[in-house]
């Protein structure tokens, strides 16, 4: 049994430092690197790519809505065409840095509001999946387990990875509890570890309504910008390994090459 452990990274911007990417890279198998729209900047992208390659961590593009002020977590009324364009643009930007450093792009995972909107909106999901496919059909598309984004990727023949979250609560329909709600985040490390292990081993998660819902856990997301993110990453990895669950990346059969 194995699972991918991914983390959102490269989210610093100019003089503003966010997260502890260098240390967290010791505990994850995949890194989702911000591409400059919701967070990150060219220098941060280059530096994070180099760090990930040095650590042997698989690299993914983490395209978001053009909303630096809101960190890409506010819904925007973007058309399917706009979604396609901004995702393709950001994949291309990160790919240039990866290529310059001699690496390969493994996957694409939309960020924040764009991710959650695509989980429910089939037209938006298809536009994002098409952008990934046109960039390179060998890339893996990360999406919320069982969501419209996963279905769109499958329809196009993309490799997909069902994603679950270590520090978020779930609704009965399998969606994440909106961040605006007080119970959206899990702050107890033991509760998070137990939730992750159950999702991986049993394919089930307890919802905020008190009932279970089914999930497929191919890759687990941890957030790198929390106050105790590094310690949290250690505990999640340790908890999985204690259960005999191997941590490794979902490498695509065909990479974006130079």
UniProtKB/TrEMBL annotation:
Keywords: ATP-binding, Hydrolase, Nucleotide-binding. It catalyses: 5-oxo-L-proline + ATP + 2 H2O = L-glutamate + ADP + phosphate + H(+). CDD domains: LamB_YcsF_like. It is an enzyme of class 3 (hydrolase). Its EC number is 3.5.2.9. InterPro entries: Glyco_hydro/deAcase_b/a-brl, LamB/YcsF/PxpA-like. Pfam families: LamB_YcsF. Signal peptide: none annotated. Catalyzes the cleavage of 5-oxoproline to form L-glutamate coupled to the hydrolysis of ATP to ADP and inorganic phosphate. Forms a complex composed of PxpA, PxpB and PxpC. HAMAP family: PxpA. Belongs to the LamB/PxpA family. This is 5-oxoprolinase subunit A. It comes from Neobacillus ginsengisoli.
């Amino acid at each position: 049994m194995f699972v991918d452990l991914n983390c959102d990274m490269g989210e610093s911007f100019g003089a503003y430092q966010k997260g502890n990417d260098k240390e967290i890279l010791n505990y994850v198998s995949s890194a989702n690197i911000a591409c400059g729209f919701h967070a990150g900047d060219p220098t941060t992208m280059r530096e994070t790519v180099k760090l990930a390659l040095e650590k042997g961590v698989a690299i993914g593009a983490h395209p978001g809505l053009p909303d630096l002020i809101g960190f890409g977590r506010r819904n925007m009324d973007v058309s399917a065409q706009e979604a396609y364009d901004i995702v393709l643009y950001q994949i291309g930007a990160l790919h240039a840095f990866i290529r310059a450093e001699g690496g390969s792009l493994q996957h694409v995972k939309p960020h924040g509001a764009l991710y959650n909107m695509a989980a429910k909106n089939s037209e938006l999901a298809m536009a994002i999946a098409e952008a990934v496919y046109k960039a390179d059909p060998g890339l893996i598309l990360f999406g919320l387990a069982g969501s419209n984004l996963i279905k769109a990727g499958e329809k196009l023949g993309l490799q997909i990875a069902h994603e679950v979250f270590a520090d978020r609560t779930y609704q009965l329909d399998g969606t994440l509890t909106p961040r605006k709600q007080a119970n959206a985040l899990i702050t107890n490390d033991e509760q998070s570890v137990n939730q992750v292990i159950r999702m991986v081993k049993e394919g089930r998660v307890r919802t905020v309504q008190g009932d279970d819902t089914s999930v497929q856990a191919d890759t687990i997301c941890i957030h790198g910008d929390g106050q105790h993110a590094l310690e949290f990453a250690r505990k999640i990895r340790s908890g999985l390994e204690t259960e005999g669950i191997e941590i490794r990346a979902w490498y695509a059969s065909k990479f974006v090459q130079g």
